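for the record, two folds in this file. i put them one after another cuz i was lazy. first one right below, seq on top, structure tokens after. the second one comes after a little note so u can tell where it starts
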Amino acid sequence: MLRWAAHRYPDRTACITLGSDGAEKETLAYGELDTRARAVAAAMRDLVDSGARALLVLPPGLDFLTAFFACSYAEVIAVPVPSPNGAFGVQRHTDRLRGIVDDCTPGVVLTTPELVGCGPASPMGDARIPRLAPRDVDVALAAGLEDPTSSSDSVALLQYTSGSTSAPKGVILTQGNVTENLAAIAGGIGQEAGKSTDFTGVTWLPPFHDMGLATLLLPPFLGGRAVVMTPMTFLMDPSVWLQSIDRYGAQFSAAPNFAYDLCTERITPEQRDSIDLHGWKYALSGAEPVRAVTLDRFAANFSNSGFRMSAFMPSYGLAEANVYVSGSRRPGDARVIHARTCALESKGRVLSAGDDEPSRPLVGVGRLPANLRARIVDPETRRPCAAGHVGEIWLAGANVARGYWGNPDATAATFGGRLADSDEGPYLRTHDLGFLDDGQLFVTGRTDDLIIVDGRNVHPQDIELSVEESHAAVARNRVAVFEWGDGTETKVCVVAETTRPHRIVTDAGTRPERGEVSREEITRAVRSAVSDSHQVGVAKVVFLKPGSLPRTTSGKVQRKQTKRLLQEGGLHAW
């Protein structure tokens, strides 16, 4: 893919990296990218054999892209990982990095010049493991590189799972998996490999995350250009993301649900007036549950900036299927289905709700590409569900990974699904629940997060949304709900971050001062919202200081980890 682009248009821009203010820092053309990648590959071949693992400890941008392609040239398995000083918490990244190092035993580390000299205590592994800084490698080495002999079945990378429900596992992805996945995304937005040279994608997602890597590789796959900034740039000032989409005329950009909420909350009316989003055709939303209210708020806030609701591309994916599973739409596809709450929770049936009936809005996450097929299966009986019923989403096709690195038991359990009556398979068991409606996929939750109350299947994300909307002091996308009690009655625990500058204070008979919120007031609001909307009792409410709720590297709430830390007294509560 890279050699084709470098040969056909060597002087065309492949990648632009931006600084924290949105200004250009570096630009690299396809010819230069190919030469640099070959040089780094030659340097690696002097250090490790083919099949060795190369740890990629690099920020988004030119060096990461160079290192990733260099691994393919060197026939080395790329392992993208978070930097020890990542955007979502130093300790969280450090612990995850150490776990990945122990699991994949890398033979070489590709990192920044600053991290090359880290001492033996570095979480990047034993200091004796060779370390290379891609930008310091002599490009003259490229001339002596022999062509790789790898095929579509050769392992390209280990994509470590986000760890939202368990410890991260290394998903084995082949060269074929990667290109099939990129082709599926391209088809979903009406593009074709190598034939979209005017295509521009803007990304701030970390490349060690499955969606971040895909959004970084999509422009080179199409022959276009990638405009890249760091996650911290986006988190510090979300307007830089949208301003960059405007400035570079980007047609494509992707983000999790929380990012669209953050733009709605933090970008001022004056900033919105200066941004033109008419050219943004594909605003992919994925990596965490897609909320209808988030899409509505964003579209309303940025309509005067030229953003159209039709640009939204709610999608579904997971690392085990190389991220992209669904997202394409046809004219007339329902964006949101309002399902009767009673039928959905008690019988797992999807029935349209009347105007006055309690309902749950479900966002359609698009159609599957031709190289994937899905089954909706009862996870207990392993029999296909009837149409209009919720079941576990099972997948098969070219995107599906080979399994987990060094973990045959987990591989068999997740990638070895077979239907009970016909033994049809193997299928990837996603552990996600959903249904198909007129060819479009809808996701309702996860099998291991379900809370069963009086025979009803209640999804924690529904309760979390109600909690977020119960009081202004509760932060959006920063709530965890899970089962809690003594076993005699099913109740839930609510753990929620507060927004800045709110401080939770215990009532002492005096009126709270500016910026303070009464614990009794906000607790009462939370309990009332959960009871009124879901008929579920709340056993415990815990408020955390901003930035304290356990999340994955992609920003997803870690409910199991939150529950464990609460039981151990490890949460940073008010």
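(here's the note) second protein begins now
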Amino acid sequence: MRVFAAALLFAAPVAAQTAPPPKTPPKLIVAISVDQFSADLFAQYRNRFTGGFARLMNGAVFPSAYQSHAATETCPGHSTILTGYRPARTGIVANNWIDQRAPRADKVVYCAEDESVPGSLHDGGYTVSDKHLKVPTLGERMKAANPASRVVSIAGKDRAAVMMGGHKVDELWWWDGKTFATYAGRAEPAVVTRGKAAVAALVARPQAALPLPGWCAGLDRPIAAGEQTLGQGRFQRDAGNLKAFRASPASDAAVLSIAAGLVQDMALGKRAAPDLIAIGLSATDYIGHATGTQGTEMCIQMAQLDQSLGAFMDVLDSYGLDYEVMLTADHGGHDMTERQRERAMPMEAHVSADLQTKTVAAAIQRALGVKGPVLLGAESDIYVDRNLPAATRAKVLAEARRRYAASPQVAAALTRAEIAATPMPPSPTSPPPETWTLAERARASFDADRSGDLLVLLKPRVTTIETPGPGYVETHGSPWDYDRRVPLLFWRRGVTGFEQPLSVETVDIAPTLGALIGVATPGVDGRCLDLDPGPGSTCP
């Protein structure tokens, strides 16, 4: 499973079938999200790819697609990919938000949980749910158009599987930290049982260091991040180390392996109605957070992922399928501050402890003579305690805004009133997303029911990580383009490709794929991208 796990679960594929240019819609949509696969990473490694990415680059290539909203996190990003809506309409404004009315002591709500379940906590012991996603996915629209369509979603994270799969899925699986899991009460297909057993056997064995491609040698340099030295990792791990497995190329290979098994077991793409499988590959994100983006760790990950994707597509070819692949990312990423400083970016900085919600809240309590928590924080959103009198709430909000805005590390502190008053970028003729103001980016991920009273946006190159530690030296979540810009690739056998360097959005994916299979996506925020390089059009 060092490169691809299919051999653990399936017989060797038969010879791939060749095909002439297609004249009918694809029978299977394969929608892949690579977590934290930034446009910068794609540009850095695209000339090194020889496997799946190389094949995808023969299709329609959009190297500057945007997760155009400000909240560049996993859950909001995945909610845009197969819905066609920005987070302001999906309702997924962050990975976590505050609901002061939540029926539990823990008022933080995780985007893919049901917080009404007794005893649940947002950061552990929660029940995975799709209840917070407010809009339908492409898979749901396919089922509405033809109930015979099958929809499958599998990912390395529950929130990725849920947000791409939606509310009506035939199979939905995610890695829960120990094994692959699904909703309670659902039957487990034999192919998943075999896959789980194969993964368990793999994890039970130690992993030797992976080979370092020659073109990674220039990145093979140690870097101190807190009390760690990183930059030269090879993914060796002890037997039974589940955390190390999760943050390694093998975890993506496991997801692809079970995905290939589900395609075969369910005969996806073999019937009259079109089918869809959504695949969330999470290792790039875990590796980026743990080691940064510019060491041997990420270089090996890119090489291994390329080969795993190629092997996965080879398996699909062996099934004789006519399938369309779409690959993108939920957000970008930014390398660790320590290495950036060594590489001509001395202005890179960790966020100051003075900007912690509890620190600002304590200062406001002293200044206004107010008792109680005053402020609550989740991600970049700040919430004023709803139990305060209205007049006091207004004073607290004004003082919080003043204090945050005065910080030399803060680019903007926007009140909910300011964000709500900002017009939504028009659809589907939005201005290029790279031209949007901070308020427009914030508006695209603002939901009046879930967003905070104040949104604090740090300046470029200031990370929200105060002190780097194990598993967390680099992050994303900013409104800046290094976190917003991702690649978008479409491929189908026999279809002539092209490259369009101008910007598009991830909300364009659902209407584009929908048009290919004749499924309408009315009212979405995105537009259909014409994948025909000539005078013809794939859009209605």
